[in-house]
Structure formats: structure tokens, C-alpha cells
Amino acid sequence: MEHVDAVVIGAGVVGLACAKFLAESGREVIVLERETAFGSGISARNSEVIHAGLYYPPGSLKATLCVAGRKALYAYCAERGIAHRRLGKLVVASRVPQLPALEAIAARARANGVDDLRPLGAADVRTLEPELDAAGGLLSPSTGIVDSHGLMQALLADAERHGAVLALASPVCGGRTDRTGIVLDVGGSAPMQLRARCVINAAGLDAPRLGHTLAGPAALHAPQAFYARGVYFSLVGRAPFSHLIYPVPEAGGLGVHLTLDLGGQARFGPDVEWIEQPDYQVDSARAERFYAAIRSWWPGLADGRLQPAYAGVRPKIVGPGEADADFRIDGPSAHGVPGLVHLYGIESPGLTAALAIGARVAAIC
Predict the structure, then answer these.
(1) What pTM did the predictor assign?
(2) Whole-angstrom distance, CA of residue 320 vs CA of residue 226
(3) Residue 91 forms beta bridges with which residues?
(4) Per the domain annotation, does 78 fall within a domain?
(5) For tag attachment on the chain, is the N or C end more exposed, with fewer CB atoms within 10 Å?
(6) What is the spatial distance between Cα 138 and Cα 131, in angstroms, rounded to a whole number?
């Protein structure tokens, strides 16, 4: 049996951030990834938005790690030359009765430490974005976009520079935990067992299954996995917007909003549905629902300008109809197993929060 100091399971943006901080603290680190490339799961299917931290409950992990992670991410991108843009976001109320919801968002954002929001009247919104039809809005200057692949390349390079090793096509099939250490059964072309002092379960969609698979006391605390698929459509041609555009949030989500990538391509989504297993199909017939939703705030959207783009699946740990769950960072204080950290329900704003999550995990191990 091979022995190693620290193992990170999952080479998405959060797993790579954990590996970076662990390696930089002097730990011997192996990153186990079941796919043949890093960052090919959740991290490859997101809108690449750097969130400011407007919507999350004050004091929650999502709120605190988003705000801390956003500040760290902008600094890291500048330091490492990672492509990003601080575009800003407009949260818009399309009707007068929605205006109190903007005030509630602003109050929550202030409670989360977001201190740069600007309230906007209808004329202010039209000045910034002439194509928008809105009764009012909020401008979030701290919202931006990032090259997520470039970010992951930099995180991996930093981890490897400090001795970390990435093992691709190396799925974790099971294992056991006790107070003397953690043993992992690793599959692939050369199956093996690894005994580690520290294991980080950053497996994204697969994290709950792994939590149940690692036999021991921590398995009793693993949540059930649920999957919420978000479907996105892209705009044919250039968008007449320079900001990200979000309507006032709807029950259960942020509504169909517009994001821009670094090349200026506009994407709309998500149209969310609960599914039994991860599935990335996009039904072109959904376009009609998108047109109706988008025209509530962009009435000038012409027919024929939407085309299917992609789908992403969020690793939910609560089911349909339940209140949204916070991030779970389950360390020894939660389950009693030294050196074991499970990351459950790391959905949006996981990309923004990745550096803050990595730093917190390294401090636990």
C-alpha cells in the first residue's frame, strides 16, 4: 500500500484551489481525477461569472466565502495574468411592483459586506443600457467574468510548482476511514490503495456518493445527491449590452439572465429542471420559453436570434421544493475523522469562492 500525506479527489476549480493551498503549506499532495483532463466536469459548464455576493443569506458560507473569494480572485487574476474583466452587473426590475425586491437585495448585499452597489432609476438604467426596459435597477460594479480554464491552469501550475502531482484517469472507487488514517481504493489502468493522512473530497456531482462510499463514521453524515440541470441559449450576433443583466430573482433561482464571455458572446439562462442523473442535453424547443422571459426586460429581442448553447448540472444536496442549502465543508468537527474534509453542495458561487474555500480547507487539514 502506498502512503501519501494529502489527497484531493477531483481536479475542478475547487479541488485545484485546495491542492494549491495544501502544496504551498508544505504538504505532499496528489490530486486524483477520474476523467482524462482536469476541469472537465462542473468547472467546464458554468457562466464564468465572478459574483459580488448579493443574494446569499448573511453569515452563510456562500456569502462569506463568495465575498472573500471574489476579492482574492481579482487579485490572483491580476498577479498571474489570467484573463478577466470587471464588467459590472445590472439587476433590473421590469415592473414597478418589483422595486421593493431591489431594496431587499441591496440590504442583503450590505449585510454581506458588498459596499459598492448603486441604486438606479428607470432613466439611469436606460442611460447605461438603452435596450433595457426597466422600472429601476441596481448596478454591481464588482461583478465580472473570468477565463475559468486559464484560472485552473494557473492553480494547477502553482500546486505542481510546490510538488503536487495530478493523476488523471484515477477514479476513487471506495475506501475506509478510521482514527488512524484514510485508505482509498483507486481504480484506473493500475488499481491501487492509498493511505493518506488528509483527504479532501472535492468531487463535485460525485461528492455525496463518495461520502457514502468511504466506509466509516463520516459516511453517516453524507447527504443525498440531487441534480438540477440549467439549460443555456446563446445569442446569434453581437449583444447590444456591455453589462451582465439579471432580472429580479424568481422563486428558486435568479431567472433567465444574460452573461457575456470574454469574447463578447452573450448567453442566456438558466432554464432549470430537476433530473434523476446528470444529463447535458439541450432541447431547442425550449427557445420559446427563453424568448418570453428575456423580452420582459429586453423587448427588442428579435425572433430567430437564440440558439442552443450548453447545459450545466448543479450538485444540489436538497431536493425540489426545499429551501436552498448552504455550502457544506464537513471536517473533523462535523464527523470525527481526523484529516477528512468533504465538500458538499459546492455550486454557484463556487467558482468565485474557490480560493477562499481552498484556504479554509488547508487550514482545517
Answers:
(1) 0.97
(2) 9
(3) 138, 246
(4) no
(5) N
(6) 16
Question: Which amino acid is located at 147 in the chain?
Answer: D
pLDDT, tens only, 116-134: 999 999 999 999 999 999 9
Burial of 41 (0-12, 13-18, 19+ CB in 10 A): buried
**Residue 52 within a domain:** no
**Three-state secondary-structure class, residue 344:** strand
Q: Can you give the residue range of the structural domain that contains 107? A: 89-141+226-316
Asked if 168 and 219 sit in the same domain, the reply is: yes
Q: For residue 267, is pLDDT > 60?
A: yes
Cβ burial, residue 117 (10 Å; 0-12/13-18/19+): buried
Q: Which residue bears the cell 459574483?
A: 51
- Which tens digit of pLDDT belongs to each residue from 208-265? 999 999 999 999 999 999 999 999 999 999 999 999 999 998 655 667 999 999 999 9
Nine-digit cell string for 176: 475506509
Distance CA 8, CA 120 (A): 45
| Residue 225: DSSP 8-state | P
Q: What tens digit of pLDDT does each residue of 309-319 get?
A: 999 999 999 99
Alpha carbon distances (Å) from 208 to 16, 251, 273, 343: 19, 26, 20, 9
Cell of 289: 420559453
Any domain includes 59 = no
Do 299 and 196 share a structural domain?
Answer: no
